[in-house]
TrEMBL record:
UniProt keyword list: Kinase, Transferase
The organism's taxonomic lineage, starting at the top: Eukaryota, Metazoa, Chordata, Craniata, Vertebrata
Gene Ontology MF: a single term: kinase activity
Protein name: Mitogen-activated kinase 13-like protein
Species assigned in the record: Labeo rohita
Amino acid sequence: MLVLDADARLTADGALAHSYFDGLRDPEDCPVPTPYDDSYDNATLPLEEWKRLSFKEVRSFVPFPRRDSKRRNTLTMT
C-alpha cells in the first residue's frame, strides 16, 4: 500500500473496493458527487479582477474553532 511512485500507488477508489470494506459497503448509500464548476479556473479576466476575487475569497474565510482553544489561551500558575 505504501508506494512512493504515484503512478503505481493504489487509488482511493481501488482502496475502497478492497475486500476489507465488503461488510461496510452499502451499494444503495453511494452519494453521487456534484460536478465541479471550473468556470473561474478557465476564465480570462484582467489582473485587477483576479486580485479583487482573491481578496474577496480571503476575506470570506472563517476559521473553524479548535476544541482546545480555551485551554490553550488560559494562563495557569502552579
